[in-house]
């Protein structure tokens, strides 16, 4: 196996574009020529057939075959044979519960971290690539056995990160306040707030911010910092983290 290779995308659809349209060139350069087929995991949405059709149409247009894990009679075996994995967005709790229910946490970790196959996630699929789903924006519509996720990176991500709207009269908590509440708990890892249109490319021990917007980084006990595309986030991969499984 080679080093871990991850493409962690904030969102599947950017305003004004089609499914994965804003990041299709990133996907092609990430998967390259060697990958012929992608294993799609549609567990985050209820209608898995429709979701698989959408994803298949997109990946075929980019030159890749797509197999959806929900069509396989043995999901674990499907992961073992996969050349690349893509987990799509939807509800993060539903997704993580299905990964546990189908005994896929260990298998996906092994394929990505030991065998070095490419892993792509968007939105909820990005959330589950991290330490835990504690910083998802989704409602807990089901209860996974644990909030611990795949742990492919030793920090958390908040996809679809939203800045406060200064014109808004809404008095609820901002995304930043919610992340700060998370960091009030002991031993909580960094949280990378990925705005829509951004993604994190991880190759081995190197992590680079890509896309068109930017990201906001939250470290426990420190002021959040602002980062432009092109930022080197490799230090997030080496920080020792007590939560890293």
Automatic annotation (TrEMBL):
Residue numbers spanned by region Disordered: 222-245
GO cellular component: cytoplasm
EC code: 3.4.13.21
UniProt keyword Amino-acid biosynthesis, yes or no: no
Location in the cell: Cytoplasm
Xref: Pfam families: Peptidase_S51
MF-aspect GO terms: dipeptidase activity; serine-type peptidase activity
Group of enzyme by EC: hydrolase
Catalytic activity: Dipeptidase E catalyzes the hydrolysis of dipeptides Asp-|-Xaa. It does not act on peptides with N-terminal Glu, Asn or Gln, nor does it cleave isoaspartyl peptides
Cited InterPro entries: Class_I_gatase-like, Peptidase_S51
SUPFAM superfamilies linked to this entry: Class I glutamine amidotransferase-like
Keywords: Cytoplasm, Dipeptidase, Hydrolase, Protease, Serine protease
GO biological process: proteolysis
Function: Hydrolyzes dipeptides containing N-terminal aspartate residues.
Protein family membership: Belongs to the peptidase S51 family.
Protein name per its UniProtKB record: dipeptidase E
Organism taxonomic ancestry: Eukaryota, Metazoa, Chordata, Craniata, Vertebrata
Gene from which this protein is expressed: Aada
